[in-house]
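subagent[fold] <- orchestrator: predict structure for attached chain, return tokens only, no commentary.
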Amino acid sequence: MFEKPADATVAPQVELVIRRLDCLSILPCVATRFLSILLESQPPLADLADIIESDPALAARIFHLMYQQGLSRPEKTPSIRQALDKLPLNVIRDAVFSVKAYPAFGQDNNRASFRKQLTAHCLAAACCAKDIAGVTSNTDSELAYSAGLLHDIGKLAIDEAMPRSFSGIIEQAKSQCACSCAIEQKHLGLDHTILGRRLAAKWHLPNQITLAIWLHHSDTNAISRSIPEAKIAQIVQLADLTARQCNIGQSGSYDSPDLTDAMLQTLAITPAQLERIRRNLPDKVAEKFRVLGMDLQRPEAAYCDVVHATAAQLSKKHTELSAENRRLQTAISHLDFATDFLLSINSDSEPVDIAENFAVRWQKFYQTGAVCLYLTLPAGSKLFQAVVVDDQSQTKTIILNAPSETPPVPQAVVNAGDYSNWLFEQLEVDFDLDHTKLVPLLSGGKAIGAIAFELRHPADTEELEENLKVSTSAAAAILDTAFARRDQQRFAELLAQLIAATLKDTQLPLATAYSLDALAEMAGGAAHELNNPLSVISGRAQILSESESDPEKKRMLEQIRQNAGELSSIIDDLMVFAKPPQPRPTQTNVRQMLDDAMSLTAQKQKAEQLDIEIDVDDSVEYVLADSAQVASAIANIFSNSLESYSNGKGPIKVTTAPDDSGKFVKLQISDSGCGMDAETLRKATQPFFSAKPAGRKRGMGLAHAQRIIQLNKGTLKIASQPGQGTTVTICLPRK
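subagent[fold] -> orchestrator:
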């Protein structure tokens, strides 16, 4: 077939053709085995690994994938099986699907038969190399196996890129009883070891495998003395010759596979050990053949069947993904609707205004007919508020009578005509009840209201309920919050009345105690009513922000979340004031308690040193109090005193002495700051009062301190003059 040696231009052309290969092909029987496993609902990874590490093309593909996924390291490259444990199944599947099937159909049966024999030789060299490495010290047997499996990828590449030239090379090597390398060099200008090295470099195979591919026909004994990494190449060279001596498969070289004593001595392997490896080799290769499906009868027919089944499964998956994509697109549109609605809400809006906003948007977005949104009112109320939007998008607010028997809000989407006759009997707008749906507005399982609307296109009830869940949940959460805000306003008005009554009657302890108890009860009610909807608002705002790509909308959603958190913090402050933990009084060292208060103050003020002078009288060493609570109260007083100075640094003076009765210890905390006028002093211990501008402080410091001191059976009094400073006097029981 070849008439004359190749000229100088042939080698670059051959190398270019070979380097265009992205991967090698797999035999149809191998593809059949692999695809059959992938068709299973949960493909066993161990079976996939058995096939991949038995086929040169798949093994090379996975080594390249390891490099792409960052699993390959110069110091330690994992084995194929270790890498498969770390790679996702879909990545492995996609990599294998990118490998072509070897053209084993049609007239060229001899070519397919030789490819099968060449694969058998690669398997024999791999199994032999692994066993040789097993009896050789300090050698990775798995790496030796992979190197043996891939040592002839240059031949596989020539066969795929230039099949006619490869057939001619094999025929000439056979007729001349020669090594294929010599024939390749003569006609191609280079041989399969060099081409294999080029491919190994392109696919980023491990360095020692690349050396074995390149050097397995060279004097590896001499090379390994200078290049220790070439030891794997020595092992592969010995394995290649041993496999040829055992006549397992066909390598394409027909020279005599002579082994030298030097090869065995360099690797420290005895003839007896090598003989045992030879005896076991046929059975090991036969097992690999079975794994690859090379014992299949009529593999081409089996391949066609599995390709058909794979195509059918992929078609089914495509249909499912298309349906899921449509569902997701629908869900996204509902999410956009909910987001736009949320961003349109004013924090001061009344529930009925929010309901009107939502109903108008609902009619426009879902292209419905008339809409009615009604809101439930507190338990026991017999009237509902409702918003009606007619066909011309005109709105009006009405009052409805609650039904006497039917629950006003269903738990799921229902046909309105079967559920809500009581509603439509009170509406002046006509609804086509055969096409009207009723959807509940639920917030944390609590019914806020419901929305009835004429549906102008057919829809499955379950699908409709799923699609509307985002929109209705957003509306319910906002309405729930609006109701809570309204209740909070009512609580605030009552709190103000009680505090005013308390201040007017400061000389009546029973009246004061009654006011504080009422305050605590209402604070608990306010927290219960507000915390749940605030959590819903914060959570929904965060979810919407994560899915929102518009920066301005994300900023506004983040503001909603932050303000909800701030409101929760305010409620927590109110609860701590109204219902603080019951004190656990013990004999507490006064000096230690004051030092603890200084430490707490330093943390609050973020200051390393404070200008606080403490003078503890020797006669008042202990008080009976909850040390942690009182230290926290005193720290609040210290903070207020520091803030009375323009520089915020003090000084503050603390003195202690027994009171006139001897039953109490009197602590006086004095500053020379800005002081307070009579009106400010009168309100100083009121919750949420602050002389600072609105929004700067919550005004709970002195209120909290007074509450804690009283719970510890003590008293707190404040004396102050503008420009002359403030003195806080605390009396605590000694026993």
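orchestrator: received. Logging for downstream: The first strand starts at residue 371 and ends at 375. The first helix runs from residue 10 to 19.
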